[in-house]
Amino acid sequence: MSTKSQFATKIGLVAATVGSAIGLGNVWRFPAETQANGGAAFLLVYILCVLCLGIPVMLAEFSLGRGGRSDAVGVFKSLSPGKGWWLVGAVAVLASYLILCYYMVVAGWTLEYLFESVTGSLYEGASTSSGDGLRNVFAAKMDEYVGNDIRPLVFTFIMVGINIAVLLGGVQKGIEKLSNVLMPLLFIILVGLCCVTLSLPDAGSGVRFFLEPDFSKITPRVLVDGLGQAFFSLSLGMGILITYASYYPSSTRLGRTSVIVALLSLLVAVLMGLIIFPAVKSFGLDRESLEGATLVFVTLPEVFVNLPWPSLWSSLFFVLLLVAALTSTVSIAEVSVAMLQDRLGLSRRRATLTVMLPLLLFSAACSLSFGSLSGFRIFGLTVFGLFDTFTTDILLPLGSIAVCIYMGWFAPRGLLVDELSNKGSLRSRWTAPVLFVIRYIAPLLIAMILVFNYI
Ligand code: PHE
């Protein structure tokens, strides 16, 4: 690679990285985990994990990417040639591709729900029901929209098409431009929806559940889930941050960038909590499961139907979700595209199509996991479930541990110091504590997640 692509502006590189970090992980995984793990206590654990562990591991990935100036496999080859470390990158690329396959399906659902909200058909027949009847209306719609064979597939394919269009635009004209427009939009919608839900009657009890910690609720399970949530929501272990950091100019301050990305990702999670908990408490829906898909596709429509102009709020919410999903799918697809470009010397166009066209097949298999393929099981899991479990429970923690061990013990001496200080031109007080976390604390704690998932 002679001329490596770079982000054009500081704002653009932050927007793109934040766009990757802010995804369905913050928007729907976080509220579900918070509800399941006792509210504010979980929030506290999550914040501590992001700040004390997430940021150092993020810095390890940034330093690898910018120091090695290559794709997730290439950085290891260029920094430690002739050693087997590139396999760590290969695991990250595999994990990222498997995640892409099922995440694209979920992204397709968000587009489908946006479409149904805008046309109003999501709310057809809902105004005459209440209580359990209302819930059943939305549960039946979810079956129809998600469990049907054709409809979700069509929307998934549209999402693949949109991703191809962005990726073909390249780093500056595709990814960076998209993020520059969509990230501000995401924050505007979040704040707008927050104002609406905070002004609902009895919003305060939802806010208290979310923000007043009850320390007796902190159990080992809460700690493990908080850590898992922190890593997933910062896009760690997927090769994304390595790939994006390889597009950072050498003047980018990695420390500052990591703090901004982490804080904005936390902010989105907190705003989401301030939208969801007051809303569900206010309408007495808080005993319902807030499990991922049900929260977004059943409980929230129940909330919207109780407000004036349900289609408006619903459409805004699904635009929000779509933005979060799109900037994340693009970032995760870029891991494979960059690898094909750098390793095999393919053109951007060829690399993009080689990554995205087979995806039509794999994501179709994931989508049909909720329809005709629901009976097809491997280890008792559907294709969708298998890709999800194998990546989040096994590959991502393993990938992060390996990156920490490499950066902490085996990377060229001085790489981290050089990258954090921009080759000595910045003072970086944080290098020693960051290195300490990367060497000792993070690998041990992540290993704990791996083990805990099996007991
Ligand atoms: N941080 C992302 C999220 O919260 C993680 C992710 C990125 C997942 C890209 C998939 C694709 O959703």
Radius of gyration: 21 Å
- Please report the number of helical segments: 18
The ordered string of helix (H) and strand (E) elements is: HHHHHHHHHHHHHHHHHH
Share in β-strands? under 5%
What share of residues is helical?
over 70%
Instruction: Write down the overall mean pLDDT.
Output: 93
Q: Kindly, what is the distance between the CA atoms of the first and last residues, rounded to a whole number of angstroms?
A: 46 Å
Q: In terms of structural class, how would the helical and strand content be classed?
A: mainly alpha
Ranges where pLDDT stays below 50 over 5 or more residues in a row are none
List of distinct ligands in this structure: phenylalanine
Described by strand count, sense and barrel closure, the largest sheet is: none
β-strand number: 0
Estimate the global geometry from the Cα principal axes: globular
Topology readout:
Blueprint: H1 10-21, H2 24-36, H3 40-68, H4 74-79, H5 86-119, H6 131-147, H7 151-168, H8 170-198, H9 203-211, H10 220-233, H11 240-245, H12 254-282, H13 292-305, H14 310-344, H15 348-368, H16 383-410, H17 415-420, H18 431-452
Helix pairs in contact: 1-8, 1-12, 1-14, 2-10, 2-12, 2-13, 3-10, 3-12, 3-16, 3-18, 5-7, 5-14, 5-15, 5-16, 6-13, 7-8, 7-14, 7-15, 8-12, 8-14, 9-12, 10-18, 13-14, 14-15, 16-18
The structure holds phenylalanine (PHE).
The site of phenylalanine (PHE) has 15 residues, from helix 1, helix 2, helix 5, helix 10 and helix 14.
Explain this structure.
The chain is mainly alpha-helical and 455 residues long. The chain has helices at residues 10-21, 24-36, 40-68, 74-79, 86-119, 131-147, 151-168, 170-198, 203-211, 220-233, 240-245, 254-282, 292-305, 310-344, 348-368, 383-410, 415-420, 431-452. α3 crosses α18 and α13 (292-305) packs antiparallel against α14. It is globular and about 65 Å long. The structure holds phenylalanine (PHE). The site of phenylalanine has 15 residues, from α1, α2, α5, α10 and α14.
